[in-house]
From TrEMBL:
<keyword id="KW-0560">Oxidoreductase</keyword>
<comment type="similarity">
    <text>Belongs to the cytochrome P450 family.</text>
</comment>
<protein>
    <submittedName>
        <fullName>Cytochrome P450</fullName>
    </submittedName>
</protein>
<keyword id="KW-0408">Iron</keyword>
<keyword id="KW-0349">Heme</keyword>
<keyword id="KW-0503">Monooxygenase</keyword>
<feature type="region of interest" description="Disordered">
    <location>
        <begin position="1"/>
        <end position="34"/>
    </location>
</feature>
<dbReference type="InterPro" id="IPR036396">
    <property type="entry name" value="Cyt_P450_sf"/>
</dbReference>
<dbReference type="Pfam" id="PF00067">
    <property type="entry name" value="p450"/>
</dbReference>
<dbReference type="GO" id="GO:0004497">
    <property type="term" value="F:monooxygenase activity"/>
</dbReference>
<dbReference type="InterPro" id="IPR002397">
    <property type="entry name" value="Cyt_P450_B"/>
</dbReference>
<dbReference type="GO" id="GO:0005506">
    <property type="term" value="F:iron ion binding"/>
</dbReference>
<dbReference type="GO" id="GO:0016705">
    <property type="term" value="F:oxidoreductase activity, acting on paired donors, with incorporation or reduction of molecular oxygen"/>
</dbReference>
<keyword id="KW-0479">Metal-binding</keyword>
<dbReference type="GO" id="GO:0020037">
    <property type="term" value="F:heme binding"/>
</dbReference>
<dbReference type="InterPro" id="IPR001128">
    <property type="entry name" value="Cyt_P450"/>
</dbReference>
<feature type="compositionally biased region" description="Polar residues">
    <location>
        <begin position="1"/>
        <end position="15"/>
    </location>
</feature>
Length: 430
């Protein structure tokens, strides 16, 4: 295993200076949980920290806002797992829960010309015009789902799981419509996505989830090849057939997998986290309802304050890289610590951990930075803004049915949210 590098506080300290001792590795909890207390403790020690991943694989995490922004756009940082030393040396087993993040073929694991080629193929689905055209469909779907949430609450003594009945089916329905995925696959694809992003999963379960995801997406691709439509999957297949070297079969399936996971899991967490934030900060909700802040303000502050992704795998330095005084050795798997960067006091001041719609700055890194900035960001922002506005217009007194600390957290240190969100649409919650 890679030995965690030293993380000196200063380059001018003497040899016996205790500040120059190696920084202890932070063992990431595979069961996930709320990341913010650990993030604050780690940030107080520095912007970059060694971490121990499941299976005792040693890596690094970049936590500080400015350090992460530099790292995400650094020319000597790669996404392709050919730069992952332990993987290339055969020391990462097939059932490692994070292996899919490293080995799946698609935009998130491509560099240079390959990345530009794949991003160009995908960009047609996320143009400003195409996203704008989706607005009426998103608004209609939102209204339908709110009817379903109301009905579910009526059947559940006034309580319904907002995540299951509203926050999930909205982005899943939209991304699957973009891809041409039939509704019969939606529930299964969400379950498999959960398995793939889980970090507490066993080797057999991890491999089974990946195998089944490939099988389901192969069925989707076969259906679109047999009956092409006005969807992204049909367009990707057509691009492959026009020029065989443009998109290989593994890249097609990998692209579909990444698009489905990223296209619904992050927006699902964003909507869920925003509702939690507003319900536990009624003064901030009142600002929006009084017209003193906007729903767009809610989306951006939620992205900063409670990022949908906590630690995203992986990037690899292509040479030994010094970042904020800490050396990250070549070939180390590095996590992007989005939830930590969003509450970095160095970037947001001493009240960085306060949910504040009047903060006056929208800069955050929760949708990425540099060449790999999230292509679906405009769509995610639109979905979340429409969802939140219509939700609280329909149910202005909506409240949590459980105290915030009792909400069950995601079993992952990648995704950052709760497993379910029981609410009382008509208010009178906890």
């Amino acid at each position: 295993m890679t030995t965690p590098p030293n993380a000196p506080a200063s380059t001018t300290g003497t040899a016996d200076d205790s500040a120059d001792a190696p920084r202890p590795s932070h063992r990431l909890d595979p069961a996930g949980g709320c990341p913010h207390a650990a993030n604050a403790r780690l940030l107080a020690q520095g912007a970059v920290t060694p971490v121990t991943l499941p299976g005792d694989v040693e890596g690094m995490a970049v936590l500080g806002h400015d350090a992460l922004k530099e790292f995400l756009a650094h020319p000597d940082v790669a996404k392709n797992a050919q730069h992952f030393t332990e993987l290339q040396e055969g020391r990462i087993p097939d059932g490692w829960p994070l292996k899919t993040f490293a080995t799946v073929q698609g935009m998130t694991t491509a560099d240079g010309a390959d990345h530009r080629r794949l991003r160009s193929l995908m960009s047609k689905a996320f143009t400003a015009r195409r996203v704008a055209e989706l607005q009426p469909r998103i608004e209609a779907l939102t209204q339908s789902l709110l009817d379903g949430l109301d009905a579910a609450a009526a059947d559940g003594d006034g309580v319904a799981d907002l995540r299951r009945h509203f926050a999930l089916p909205l982005p899943m329905g939209v991304i699957c419509e973009l891809l041409g995925v039939d509704a019969e696959h939606h529930d299964r694809l969400h379950h498999l996505s959960n398995q793939i992003v889980a970090t507490d999963i066993g080797p057999e379960e991890a491999m089974a989830a990946n195998k089944e995801m490939v099988e389901v997406l192969s069925q989707v691709a076969a259906a679109r090849a047999a009956a092409p439509g006005d969807d992204l999957t049909s367009a990707l297949i057509a691009a492959r057939e026009e020029n065989g070297d443009r998109l290989g079969p593994h890249e097609l399936l990998g692209t579909l997998m990444l698009t489905i996971i990223a296209g619904h899991e992050t927006t699902l967490n964003l909507i869920t986290n925003a509702v939690r934030a507003l319900c536990t900060h009624r003064d901030q909700l009142a600002l929006v309802q009084a017209g003193k802040a906007t729903w767009s303000d809610v989306v951006e502050e939620t992205l900063r304050w409670d990022s949908p992704v906590s630690y995203f795998p992986f990037r690899y330095p292509t040479r030994d890289l010094t970042l904020d005084g800490t050396t990250i050795p070549k070939g180390t798997p590095v996590l992007a610590g989005y939830s930590a960067a969003g509450r970095d006091p160095q970037a947001y001041g001493p009240e960085a951990d306060r949910f504040d719609l009047t903060r006056g700055t929208r800069r955050h890194l929760s949708l990425g930075h540099g060449a790999h900035f999230c292509m679906g960001a405009p769509l995610a922002r639109m979905e979340a803004t429409i969802a939140l506005e219509q939700l609280f217009v329909r149910f202005p007194d909506l409240d949590l049915a459980l105290p915030e600390p009792e909400l069950p957290r995601h079993a992952s240190f990648v995704g950052n949210s709760v497993q379910r969100l029981p609410v009382r649409p008509q208010g009178s919650g906890q």
